[in-house]
Automatic annotation (TrEMBL):
Protein name: Ribonuclease H
Lineage of the organism: Archaea, Methanobacteriati, Methanobacteriota, Stenosarchaea group, Halobacteria
InterPro entries documented for this protein: RNaseH-like_sf, RNaseH_domain, RNaseH_sf
Pfam entry (one): RVT_3
Signal peptide limits: none
Organism for this UniProt entry: Haloarcula rubripromontorii
One term of GO molecular function: nucleic acid binding
Amino acid sequence: MDRHDTTASDRERLPAETLSPLATRVDELLALYRYELTPAIDAINGAVAGYGGLFDPATSAAEIRTAVDELLESGSPPAQQAATDADASRVVLYVDGSAHSNGPAGAGAVIQADETPIARLGRPVGSRTNNNVAEYAALHLGLQALAARCDPESVEVRIDSMTVINHIWGNSESTVKATPYSTAITDHLSALPAHEWTHLADSDPNPADAQATVGADIAALGPG
């Protein structure tokens, strides 16, 4: 099947750690929107009755669940909200994971071509998940989106996690347990014609950070 003809329902959803029923349902909607956070959240906010929204403290879990269920039952998102695929010979992939102190974690990824974002992605990873797992999930999220949307000649992965860098690109054995992400990451990387990685210092801008933070906020939703 051609990647441009693959519908959201045909694509395999990304693996997740433990999430509340409500966060799981929101993650299902994100998959429908190809993990594009902005159009998915805008749709939820528009479907919530009254003046509330996904992160409005006045919105109950039941109201969010009703809105998300309605959107999922309606099928594919409107064409103007669907993310577009891109043809670019070289792309830059920013990835980042975020975990709140009490465990909710999210993953973020931003794909750029010629310094122009072509995808801004985010998702919840788990309600009790550490930052390392979120970092792996972020890399997986970005690479899966690349495989589905782009056909670049080369990719530069910009990432701040030395744990992931040493495990994925290092020469020594790692004790980090990252399943089910690590094998899929390796498979995606091996399918690329060429790729390189760049370590981002804490002071370097990373547009994926904001996406990951929102993903962690979604992971904190519950119970639903």
